[in-house]
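pasting for the record
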Amino acid sequence: MSRPKSLIFALATFATGLMGPRPGEAHDFWVQPGDYWVRPGAGTSVTLLVGHGPGRQRSLIPAYRIVRFEAVGPQGSQDLRPSLRLRGPRDDGTVLLRRSGSYLLVLQTDARAYSLLPAIRFNDYLRVEGLTPALLFRERTHRTNADGSEAYSRQAKTIIQVGDEPNAESPVTHPLGLALEIVPDVNPYAERCAKNLPLHVLYHGRPLPGALVKLTNLEHDANPIETHVTDENGQAVFSAPRRGDWLLNVIWTEVASASSDADFQTTFSSLSFGYNQSSATEFAVSGSHDACAVPRPAARSAGP
């Protein structure tokens, strides 16, 4: 039996107070490593972040909602869930990767989170995120002036480079079977002086046209610096970043099943990568800070 909407709203409001901002307030979610480039066998911290600009904060997601957290590298996959220590004093865990290569950290949540927003805010959220099919559905069903609800999940990927030499052919350029994911067509770490970063977006394994993809500089993340809508093949091309920490994100939604308490089933997906390291990092070109220089991994031993 479906729960009354008034009860759902009360529960959603209470959960929001415990869990942080609703999706309409904090769309961005990503795994932030302490270093994107590390030595083989060196550990790096990971922190789960949500929101952007002044609203950025650590995610308060409970461990039971994380259904997948692993590293996918040249030698296969490694389950990282045992390495999580959520809401630690400085981070949410430490990742240790022993072999050289380009890796993807992938984190996937269940789809049991719930959001309910007033009509004006929900419509605005759909417009800002380019979710035109949902807007058209609300118009077609005469629900434009009704509150909007969604059940949602989050899917986050982060590119980590272990060792000095990025792999042009690596898991970075292959899909990982997520409900919604951004797949770069090239490894951004291997293309040292590339002008463009081409990518494609998959939804349940198929190219997704009409999706709004945003590129954000995480050092100045109040607004994205570049946006593109995927073409009929689910593809988009961005300017290739060469410095700093970066986030690509996309959102997609579909009408929820009749048995759901929510109007829509939404997926939030991100891909983060970066070139700036800790102060201990040196550059591959000695003494050079040229935009095309690739940083050497920080020479740090693994922590406990």
